[in-house]
Design brief:
This protein is mainly α. Helices cover about 45% and strands about 5% of the residues. It has 22 helices and 10 strands.
Length: about 600
Amino acid sequence: MKKLRYLIISLTAVLVCMSSCEDELEQVNPNAITTGSFWKTADDFDKGLNAVYSALQFPSVSGSEITKNMLRSDLAGTESWYGNHLQYTNLTWNDASDFVSTRWSQLYIGIFRANQVLDNIKNEGITGLTEEERVLIEAQARFVRGINYFWLGYSYNGAVIHDEVAISDDDLKKPFSNLNEVITTMVIPDLEFAYNNLPKTWDDSQDLGRVTWGAAAAMLGKTYLYNKEWDKAANYFKQVIDEGIYRLTTDYMENFTLEGEFNSESIFEVVFSDNYKAGAGGNNHDDVHGNPGSEATSIASNFASIVGAGGYNSCMPSYWLQELFVSGDSIDVSNPDNFGKRYSSRTFASIVVEFGDGEYYNAPLTTDPITGEKSKANFNYGQGSKVKKWTNWYWADSEDAATGARGGINFRHIRLADVYLMYAEAILERDGDGAVNEAMTYIDMLRERAGVITLQRYREIHGGQIPQLHVSKFANGLSEFPLTAVNKDALMTHLRMVERPLELAFEGHRWYDLVRWGIVKNIFDERRAEEVKIEQQLGNPIPATQPKIYPLFLNERVRLDFVVPAANYSSAIHDYFPIPSIEVQSNNNLN
């Protein structure tokens, strides 16, 4: 369904050309596609809807550029020589920065395409389109428009609302609407229409990738969760859970592979393909300026190791996250599935660490002292770990550097595990201590799948208490995690600082979570304090005689990710991006 979208792109270009040239030439090409000749048949709307879906593939929506959002959180860091990425780690972007501008523009392209479909689906006399099919088309377009406005609202603290295709200059120059207005005017109505009219499943395998009732229900729940309407949020999440359509995959890693696409856990994923237009770069989308669109993604270029793996490792796990995986996600040794393993299944699928399990791009994790085979993980210069998710580390020798680490792994925006954790959060906020047991049940479903010790088991071991797994034992010189009683506050801390980071790292949620919880400043201060203690223990640079110490295994130096953000962060300035300067310049209602 993706290959046909380019007709709509060409149609837009034709209309622009005609508007500027018709008066001069005083003639119309009878073979040109126009709005008068298009939007007449069911096939036209299928192509138009393909264009709507294809906008979800853009790099700043679901591709390589969203790693810059990840760099704003406590889960990731980058190197000083990656200046374009460093501005997001250091919170020094401005209204002309690349991702600030491209995220805005690419989300609006999706909205424009959805509005094209929605404006024209009202037409009379469309050939071959039943009323039921009309409603299905409208529901899909409104879901995509609604989620794009959700992303705009929580990226920029609001948006300029366009609910139809602009036909005049004045239509384009609307004022900025605040976040609440965007949510109540666009997001909730669009998602509610989708919720009421989308199918729970699509019958035809050719429809894989189309949005469903479950995606709309989950996004409504997420919208109400962000808006602190706990009961409404819990209700939508519980519907998704109880409907029985979705179930956790047995193998956590299936959520991040080609083979695991559209699995039982997936609720909303964006389709990518590496089999279309071979040789086109993974960041090329739409056929423009002579560059063919690829239908692929280059997100792996930001994660894969720069030595031998075809990437740049410009987005790497923070030391705190590495320790959380390696030390905090302790495997259940009584589980026979864990025989011979060092770390949990979600550690194995999420990051690569020295002295870990398995191989990385078909190479050992450390250089083999006997055969001399070199590692492609490259743990030198204080780089303690690399991201595995969304890369081809598990089967390829390396990423294709010639085409920008072009890959075809679908990006999963919503999966059942996330719904479990959001539901647990919603009922804890709504019911307090009375929801502890139910919330813990859903958390433990994920911990059991990961093969780690459940919270219930910890309670049995520690006389009703659970360990505070988010506390850095390494930085604080602790031999054991501190314990805490199990209540609403303790479980909320566990959700925020343990389960969501471990389960959902590098899936695009963390910055928005930290902002809505209002804890960014505290988190950055904690991460910076830990860096200071790590430097004190290891030295910086690290002496060549210093052995590698569990769980970070660092050598040469300590990478300092939180010096600048801890000092610079201001909620009023950094929680949301500014309106891009190019938008302000073209719309005098935004000055």
